[in-house]
From TrEMBL:
Keywords: Membrane, Transmembrane, Transmembrane helix. This is Suppressor of tumorigenicity 7 protein-like. It comes from Struthio camelus australis. Belongs to the ST7 family. One of its GO terms (cellular component) is membrane.
Length: 480
């Protein structure tokens, strides 16, 4: 103890100044790292390490892991059963772009990868589910394509598609792959899809006329149906992108009429967008009357399109000053309630529609009620909101009122089930790293960010005082 006392009495003001500066610098680095980790991952690094590694060592109970993100292509389940579904269910984006003609062109121009590995891996699973079956081994071209869908390298997939066409010039799935990944323009993609349609219709008719009722035949018929529906839908999307909108609408209506049981593919969302482009609002209302039903799963496209139609009736003459004086009319109340309903379903959309956040290319898969769905919706529908005079103004004036009705959205909703707690994690997997993921509800800053910020500030203040009043601070340090 005497040695320690003698040592402390010999310390100079320079030592205390260096000590406080070093302490301030280190705590500042920890604060910056904590802030970065929270912005990127939504959690405190120190808190995460403490819970994961330290709590089990001191006898605490390890927290249960979050529910895994589950992918499924089945969207025909009833709204009443949604509480039994996994919280974070990933769905195929009904309006997903073309790999070669759109995503790849974006990467060539910007140097940024628009799709995440997780998103592309889900697409690979989709392709294997849609375009392969147990009888592929009987046909050499389909065997090659079965391997192609599993291949990670795009050039290897394209090479395999050409190999399949050498074995069988009527291999529809090979044309599909070339249309999606090799074609660098929508025109080229449409040419490949037309060849795929010709081959797919021939194979589909053969499967239909086959008298065998074996499980293998049923699997092959299901695969051939999937190929035909996929090709017709993509051809309709090509027509929409090339400006032949009425043709696209007819193709979509015919497809929905020919295959009414495939509602889980959400072709009606493609139809809604095309009808909005035509400004055929009566037809849009007719589609909504069929699909905006309490027994069917909702989506941002359905909820926000319903709100847009209600807003269209009043937005041109709407003024917040006038409304505050005379009160809202019945039509205005209906429009505001529709906006509140849409915002409760997906609270991320308004910031994109109001251009408070920048858009990126939508992913190939989306999470309903999440930021990925908001990006996908706004990417295609922002122009429709802009076209209706006053619609965005009405949205701007009313959308934040939704949050007063649901002060605790993770615990209790108003018109929908409570907001899922794991959307942020799933959206970070689906959206590119250069996009700032929207988080709802906004999280409070973790304790350790406040703590490290306070420690850094306190150390910096001590360093400043030591520099300005060295003798006084030495006396204070020795007294302490």
């Amino acid at each position: 103890l005497l040695t320690v006392t003698v040592f402390l009495s010999t310390l100079t003001p320079k030592f205390y100044f260096a000590l406080t500066v070093t302490s301030s610098f280190i705590s500042g680095l920890i604060f910056v790292f904590e802030w970065w980790h929270f912005r990127k991952y939504g959690t405190s690094f120190i808190e995460q390490v403490s819970v994961s590694h330290l709590r089990p060592l001191i006898g605490g109970v390890e927290s249960s892991p979050p529910a895994p993100v589950v992918f499924s292509a089945n969207s025909g389940e009833h709204e009443t059963n949604r509480q039994n579904m996994p919280e974070c269910k990933v769905w195929r984006n009904p309006l997903n772009l073309f790999r070669g003609a759109e995503y790849s062109r974006y990467m060539w121009v910007t140097g940024k990868e628009p799709l995440t590995y997780y998103d592309m891996n889900l697409s690979a699973q989709d392709h294997q589910n849609f375009f392969t079956c147990d009888t592929d081994a009987l046909r050499p071209s389909d065997t090659v394509m079965q391997k192609a869908w599993r291949e990670r390298n795009p050039q290897a997939r394209i090479k395999a598609a050409y190999q399949a066409l050498e074995l069988n010039n009527d291999c529809a799935t090979a044309y599909v792959l070339l249309a999606e990944e090799e074609a660098t323009t929508i025109v080229d993609a449409e040419k490949y899809f037309k060849q795929a349609l010709k081959a797919g219709e021939t194979i589909y008719r053969k499967s239909q006329n086959c008298l065998s009722q074996s499980p293998q035949h049923e699997a092959q018929l299901r695969r051939d149906t999937n190929v035909l529906v996929y090709v017709k839908r993509r051809l309709a999307m090509c027509a929409r992108k090339l400006g032949r909108i009425r043709e696209a609408v007819k193709m979509m209506r015919d497809l929905m009429k020919e295959f009414p049981l495939l509602s889980m593919l959400n072709i009606h969302e493609n139809l809604l967008e095309a009808l909005l482009e035509l400004q055929a609002y009566a037809d849009v209302q007719a589609v909504l009357a069929k699909y905006d039903d309490i027994s069917l799963p909702k989506s941002a496209a359905i909820c926000y399109t319903a709100a847009l139609l209600k807003a269209r009736a009043v937005s041109e003459r709407f003024s917040p000053e006038t409304a505050s004086k005379r009160g809202l009319s019945t039509a205005e109340i209906n429009a505001v309630e529709a906006i509140h309903r849409a915002v409760e379903f997906n609270p991320h959309v308004p910031k994109y529609l109001l251009e408070m956040k920048s858009l990126v290319l939508p992913p190939e898969h989306i999470l309903k009620r999440g930021d990925s769905e908001a990006v996908a919706y706004a990417f295609f529908h922002l122009q429709h909101w802009k076209r209706i005079e006053g619609a965005l103004n009405l949205l701007h004036c009313t959308w934040e009122g939704t949050f007063r009705m649901i002060p605790y959205p993770l615990e209790k909703g108003h018109l929908f089930y409570p907001y899922p707690s794991c959307t942020e994690t799933a959206d970070r997997e689906l959206l590119p790293t250069f996009h700032e993921v929207s988080v709802y509800p906004q999280k409070e800053l973790p304790f350790f960010i406040h703590f490290t910020a306070g420690l850094c500030s306190f150390s910096a203040m001590l360093a400043l005082l030591t520099h300005q009043f060295p003798e006084l601070m030495v006396v204070f340090a020795k007294a302490v």
